[in-house]
Every structure is written in structure tokens, then in C-alpha cells.
Amino acid sequence: xxxxxxxxxxxxxxxxxxxxxxxxxxxxxxxxxxxxxxxxxxxxxxxxxxxxxxxxxxxxxxxxxxxxxxxxxxxxxxxxxxxxxxxxxxxxxxxxxxxxxxxxxxxxxxxxxxxxxxxxxxxxxxxxxxxxxxxxxxxxxxxxxxxxxxxxxxxxxxxxxxxxxxxxxxxxxxxxxxxxxxxxxxxxxxxxxxxxxxxxxxxxxxxxxxxxxxxxxxxxxxxxxxxxxxxxxxxxxxxxxxxxxxxxxxxxxxxxxxxxxxxxxxxxxxxxxxxxxxxxxxxxxxxxxxxxxxxxxxxxxxxxxxxxxxxxxxxxxxxxxxxxxxxxxxxxxxxxxxxxxxxxxxxxxxxxxxxxxxxxxxxxxxxxxxxxxxxxxxxxxxxxxxxxxxxxxxxxxxxxxxxxxxxxxxxxxxxxxxxxxxxxxxxxxxxxxxxxxxxxxxxxxxxxxxxxxxxxxxxxxxxxxxxxxxxxxxxxx
Length: 477
Description:
This protein is an alpha+beta fold. The chain has ten helices and twelve strands. It has helices at residues 3-11, 14-62, 113-119, 158-193, 195-210, 224-276, 286-313, 328-342, 361-378, 435-445; strands at residues 91-95, 101-104, 126-132, 135-143, 150-156, 324-327, 347-352, 355-359, 384-391, 396-402, 449-454, 460-471. The strands form two sheets. Strands 6, 7, 8, 9, 10, 11 and 12 form a seven-stranded mixed β-sheet that branches. It has a five-stranded antiparallel β-sheet with strand order 2-1-5-4-3, with helices on both faces.
């Protein structure tokens, strides 16, 4: 049964939940106030009855001899002596030491066992309820102050109980009306309170239907709903930026893929034409055929490299390796060895100081391989690519890669880290224009930056700065 109410509650709308919560809160308050009021009235009424009994009993017990034959006579001022008269009881009686009735009102009272003990001096006083003529009476028995015996006084509780019952019915009716009003009020409050949520929901649904991410959700006020709207707008802006980035990537990638694919298709069609018509083989000499096959091999390799770089550039966060503390000297050493094997005509030198960063080792290594590949590609045979690593005065890991190539023109420097950007001087060389874009993306994902500039006297300097988690000794590179 515990699961059934929970499932029922989860199936309710937010409007119904708010209405029920408001109704329950008001109902709890109304019932609490009604209960306190009823208890207070009951206690006050009980105290009044008990006070009346105590006063009547004291009046009679003070001079029981005056009451044995009836109430005291009137005094000179029309009052009864020795005390002011007021209606007693309406039932009372005086008991002797042996519990016999010595006098009292016309309607007598029962002499209970407890009353006998009080009359005999064995008990101080006794309060009890008795049933007389179908009515419930509260009876008090106290010892007489003079001559022994006891005094009994009783008051009918039926009128008081009837009054209390009427008051209880009125309170119950008030509770029903209050809870009913709370239900209506709860629905009204829920409807009014959820208007901003409904407006926000409609705006988001419109965005989902129209896919118009450039139209922000209207925001009014500074409450929690406004904060939710701001969060939705932030999310829409992020989705729009991601979609625009994806569109740009697809457009640029299709443009970059189109050229090598067209060249490959042309060369393959030429080879197939020669295979289908052997009489035309003389038009494709062996050296030209070999050159054509080498071009195909290079273009296929370029396509494979472009596809790999596109995958790296569009890698999703969920597929990335976990971050850990990485010793950069090990990463730089591994990346340098990989590039040294591929480009034996260039000399690679390093000056590395111990430095630790928090990141993903595989991505950091691919980032450095791209930087070193780019430096080696532009370095002449016998050129030198130098890598320096140190921790600067600000506690950042500073990785500097320099080459001795022709350098980058000043007008190209602001764009070298853009996707698919290739300087005019680089368009005749193999490459996709994605290597340095991957470098910039990886550095940003690790909380760092990358810049490019000239190297003195010739060449290019690429500087990568990453937050360092520890180093042997701060220094400058």
C-alpha cells in the first residue's frame, strides 16, 4: 500500500499537487485551531462547574447546622445569613457522621460508598459523576466544618454538555466550510501561481516545434520562474551555438572532402577507362600510371587523416578518457618520438623541466603531435624543432615549440587556429587545416590557451599554457 499512494501522487499534475498541498495546509490549520478552541471551551466550562461546586460546598460546610432544615432565612436587607444566598445545587444535602441524610434539597442525592468515607472522616473530599433521572450530575462531597458529617452538592452537566455539543457542531461546520473554501482557494492559487510556468512551457514547446533557437523565452520578474527562464535561454543559446558549430563543421568538411574526392574519382575513372579499352593503354605511359597511383595513394591518405581529425574535433564529452594528473615531460617525450620516426630529416631537441597538469593523457599527446607535425612540415631538411617546458611565475605550465621554417605571415596569424583555415602558402602542401584547430580545442578543454608568433630569426613559435598542479621549481622558459 505504501507504493500505491506514491504512484497516485506522481500521476497528479503540478496544478493538482499544489491545490492539494494548499488545501491540506489550510485544513490542518483550521482543524488545529478548532481543536484548540473546543478544548479551551471544554476546559473553561469544566472549571466553571467545579468552581460552582466548590463555592456551594464551602458555603454549606461552613455552617451545616443552618442548612439541615433548608436554606437560611432572609436577613434584614433581604439577604440570607450568614452569607449571601444564591441558588445552590440545584441538589444538595447534609450527611451526619453515620452518613444518614440530615437535610437537603427536595431532590436528594445518592449516598455512595465514597461519600460514607468522607462523612466518617476517612477521606478528605470526593468528586464523582452520578446518573439521576436520566441526567449526568457532577457531585462533590466534602467534610462539614462543624459537628462532623459531610456536605454533598451536585450540578447537572446535561445543559453544559448540550452547549458543548452545539459548539462542537458549529466548529465542525466551520471546519467543513473552511476546508471547502481552502480547496477552492488552493485551486485558484495554484492556477495563478502556475501561469508563468504555463507561459514558459508554451514558449519552450513553440521552440521545439519551430526549431527557432534564436528566439529567447520571455522573462518577467526576478523570481524562481524567471531564473528558470534564464536557464532555458542559456540552454537554447548553447544548443544554437552547438548547432551552428555543427553546421559549420559539416559545411567546411564537405568542402574540404569534395576536392580530394573529385580528384580521386577522376583518376580512378581514367584507370578504369584504360582497363576497359586496352587499345588506349599507349595514352597512359607506365611512368604516368605510376605517378597516378602515387597520387591516389596520397589522396587516400589525406582523406584518412582528414577523417581522423574530424573525429577528434567532433569528439563527444561522454566518450573522452577520464582526467588524471599527468606528468607533461612524459607526454612531450612520447609525442616527440612519434614525430621523430615519421620525419627523420628534421632534428628534434627538448629542454624539459618536471611539470604536472590535470588532464587527459591521450588528448594532450595528440595535441603535441599536431604541433610537432606542423613544425616539422614547415621545417627544411636538416632543420631543428625545439620543445621547451617549464612552469612560469604564475604557476602555469608553459610549453613552447619553435621551428626554423619560413614562419607565418602577419595577416595569417589571427586565423591559424581556425577550422579548415589554410594560408595561401600552405595550399599546395598536404593537410586539412584542422591540426592547429584541434590544438586550440584541446588546450581550451584543459583550461589553457595557445598562441602563435614569429621565431627569431626565422620560423614559428607556438606557445601552450596549461594550469599546473605541481612542479619541481617554478621558473621561466
